[in-house]
Write a structure and sequence with these properties.
The complex is a heterodimer.
Chain A (H helix, E strand, L loop, with lengths): L5 H29 L2 H18 L2 H21 L4 H23 L6 H18 L1
Helix pairs in contact in A: 1-3, 1-4, 4-5
Chain B lengths: L6 H28 L9 H5 L3 H23 L2 H21 L7 H18 L19
The chains are: A mainly alpha, B mainly alpha.
Chain lengths: 129, 141
């Protein structure tokens, strides 16, 4: 592992987090548009539910972002130590998702949910370190 | 309280919490048997697909994605996401009891924080209500 600059370290970690957030928000947005999967399954069975999900361009874009996030994590791990990269990107993803869910999905992120995101963010950093 | 979840939906959330971490643990156990994969022997990845631990891990991760998507279809992202963090606790507890790994004070503190975070969210509504039809700005709350 060659030593990398602080900027490069954080640029790769932030890239992992940003692509993960895009993936989560896009898939969540797609599921919101598709509607309750339990109802769809009751009406048109499991194949119908799978078709509804896989046929959504927003969902496919989300999965693409998740794949990008996975590969940028692999790239990051080849340059940055796992004890920093894994908890840092996971923590950033939790906080970023709370903000993105409020901004793009119009979710009611009240004080309770902000605290939850903050607690989980610090908790993940401590557990994964 | 509105948007309380049925027992069946709590089971889906339980699957979200357990499948990812147990799947990862099984994959990691299987890959330690397969050995290190490098760019020069990518074919080893296909051999890995024959390892029963790897197969079980992949099936559990598929189960995770299915239950995660199901949960997102009736609950907010900010409601479902904290429960995925429970996976970190499950991994630590599996490591503690199965592999007899030591869990430091920092890790216990992290576990406590995640439990609190999940508890906060679980006490609130699972889905944001959007008034339909949309009311003029200012009246909607």
């Amino acid at each position: 592992m060659t030593p990398v600059s602080t900027f490069e370290t954080w640029a790769t970690i932030v890239t992992v987090a940003l692509t993960a957030i895009a993936g989560d928000v896009l898939t969540a947005g797609a599921m919101r548009r598709i509607g309750d999967l339990d109802l769809i399954r009751a009406k048109s069975g499991l194949p119908g539910a799978i078709k509804a999900v896989v046929g959504s361009p927003m969902f496919l874009l989300g999965v693409l972002c998740m794949a990008l996030s996975f590969f940028s994590l692999l790239f990051t791990l080849s340059k940055v130590e796992v004890s920093l990269a894994a908890p840092a990107s996971a923590s950033l993803t939790f906080i970023g998702n709370a903000a993105a869910a409020k901004l793009f999905l119009n979710e009611n992120v009240d004080r309770r949910r902000w605290f939850a995101a903050l607690f989980v963010c610090i908790g993940v950093a401590l557990v994964a370190h | 309280m509105k948007h309380t979840l049925t027992p069946q939906r709590y089971l889906v959330l339980l699957a979200v919490m357990l499948t990812a971490s147990i799947g990862d643990t099984l994959l990691s156990h299987g890959m330690s048997q397969v050995g290190p994969v490098s760019l020069h022997n990518l074919g080893l990845l296909f051999t890995a697909l024959k390892n029963p631990w790897v197969i079980a891990g992949i099936l559990l991760l598929l189960g995770f994605f299915a239950s995660y998507l199901t949960a997102l279809s009736w609950a907010d992202l900010t409601f479902v996401l904290p429960s995925t963090a429970v996976g970190y606790i499950v991994v630590a507890i599996i490591a503690y009891f199965w592999q007899h790994e030591h869990i430091s004070l920092y890790r216990w503190l992290g576990i406590l924080l995640i439990v609190c975070g999940v508890g906060f969210v679980a006490n609130g509504p699972s889905l944001t209500e959007h008034p339909e039809p949309l009311l003029p700005a200012g009246t909607a709350k």
